[in-house]
């Protein structure tokens, strides 16, 4: 599979070495820290994706897949150093990860320096496949614009006013910028923006500024929250009774543990990347069945993403017939493959995976521990005008 040509001829030694070679993949992600739950889901999904795509053999054309795990602890400097170690010392064929957008941005130049592929999953910031992108970066995870456009479709309407609350780093700021862009021309305006540190636990001051900015407006008023990790502000802001000003809280999808807090918001609408009961396809059927059997719980938000990345890696190597970087790039640009969400396709211009998103409405079932994001409408690839931002 790996190209080992000498003076136009393949040596017997090279053939023997190739036959016994392993395919090495580094998974570099924040195993410890605030996003630990995201990380575990991502890794479980990755391993299940590799298993599914190889028919359970964990081999491609007789070559064994070896996954090397590295923990960034959510520190950008660690992500950079660990990716250098993976490409240089471990000689991996490609890498997958990380969880955090800030860590991902530190890792991108390393892929370019070593001329090796980094499949970004699940870091979200637009700049990863935008201004900071290079040709060795492919992303299976959704980007901020996919979140933003799908939520704009779900929330925009005549005489709707929206305030935003987000974390003050790449994920939050990219997300709000993309959301505002997606609302352009819909007649819905962003009245006020609040950015707070990622470890904020007291949202009183930010909420009061939002209330003051919106209380005298006529029409429908919504507070759109973009948040990752612990300390989700929705319930805390809701406890301050935004309803007295006619303000409703809105947000996108999240992991099952976070969806428990959504039970306070029956009827709330938004858009999500994944909920295990929504997609209807053979890959998702397998994932749900196997995840329940192995872990006793449904697959979650980032499990589906990890699986999509694992399948993408296997399909690319199979179709390229090689782990050579240039062969993989040529194969992956425009590549379509099936995931728990259905079809994904790597857009040739920026290697962002185009994919469906799901407009939902929250339903509360007392017998279910979390709120259920019921499907209103699947937003397919053709429904989501996702900008190319790497120019």
UniProtKB/TrEMBL annotation:
GO terms for biological process: amino acid transport. Residues 1-21 form the signal peptide. Coiled coil: none annotated. Gene3D superfamilies: 3.40.50.2300. It comes from the Bacteria. Keywords: Amino-acid transport, Signal, Transport. InterPro entries: BCAA_transport (IPR051010), Leu-bd (IPR028081), Peripla_BP_I (IPR028082). Transmembrane segments: none annotated. Pfam families: Peripla_BP_6 (PF13458). Residues 23-363 form the Leucine-binding protein domain. Belongs to the leucine-binding protein family. PANTHER family: LEUCINE-SPECIFIC-BINDING PROTEIN (PTHR30483), PERIPLASMIC BINDING PROTEIN OF ABC TRANSPORTER FOR NATURAL AMINO ACIDS (PTHR30483:SF6). This is ABC transporter permease. It comes from Antarcticimicrobium sediminis.
């Amino acid at each position: 599979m790996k190209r080992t040509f000498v003076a136009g001829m393949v040596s017997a030694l090279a053939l023997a070495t190739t036959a016994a070679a392993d395919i090495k993949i580094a998974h570099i992600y924040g195993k410890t820290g605030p996003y630990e739950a995201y990380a575990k889901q991502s890794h479980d999904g990755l391993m299940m994706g590799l298993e599914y795509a190889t028919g359970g053999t964990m081999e491609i054309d007789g070559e064994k897949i070896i996954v090397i795990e590295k923990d960034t602890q959510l520190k950008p400097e660690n992500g950079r150093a660990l990716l250098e170690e993976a490409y240089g010392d471990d000689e991996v064929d490609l890498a997958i990860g990380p969880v955090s957008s800030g860590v991902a941005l530190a890792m991108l130049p390393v892929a370019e320096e070593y001329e090796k592929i980094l499949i970004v999953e699940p870091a979200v910031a637009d700049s990863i496949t935008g201004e900071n992108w290079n040709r060795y970066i492919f992303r299976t995870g959704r980007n901020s614009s996919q979140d933003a456009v799908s939520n704009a479709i779900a929330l925009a309407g005549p005489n709707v006013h929206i305030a935003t609350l987000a974390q003050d780093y790449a994920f939050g700021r990219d997300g709000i910028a993309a959301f505002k862009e997606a609302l352009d021309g819909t007649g819905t305006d962003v009245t006020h923006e609040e950015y707070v540190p990622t470890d904020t636990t007291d949202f009183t001051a930010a909420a009061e500024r939002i209330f003051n900015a919106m209380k005298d407006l006529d029409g429908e008023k919504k507070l759109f929250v973009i948040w990752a990790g612990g300390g989700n502000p929705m319930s805390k802001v809701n406890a301050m009774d935004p309803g007295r000003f006619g303000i409703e809280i809105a947000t996108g999808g999240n992991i099952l543990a976070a969806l428990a807090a959504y039970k306070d918001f029956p009827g709330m609408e938004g858009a999500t990347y994944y909920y295990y009961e929504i997609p209807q396809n053979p890959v998702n059927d397998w994932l749900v069945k196997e995840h329940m059997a192995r872990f006793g719980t449904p697959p979650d938000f980032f499990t589906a993403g990890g699986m999509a990345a694992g399948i993408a890696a296997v399909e690319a190597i199979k179709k390229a017939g090689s782990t050579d970087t240039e062969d993989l790039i040529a194969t992956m640009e425009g590549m379509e493959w099936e995931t728990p969400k259905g079809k994904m396709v790597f857009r040739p211009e920026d290697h962002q995976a185009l994919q469906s998103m799901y407009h939902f409405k929250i339903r509360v079932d007392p017998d279910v521990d979390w709120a259920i994001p019921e499907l209103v409408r699947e937003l397919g690839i053709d429904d989501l005008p996702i900008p190319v931002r790497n120019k």
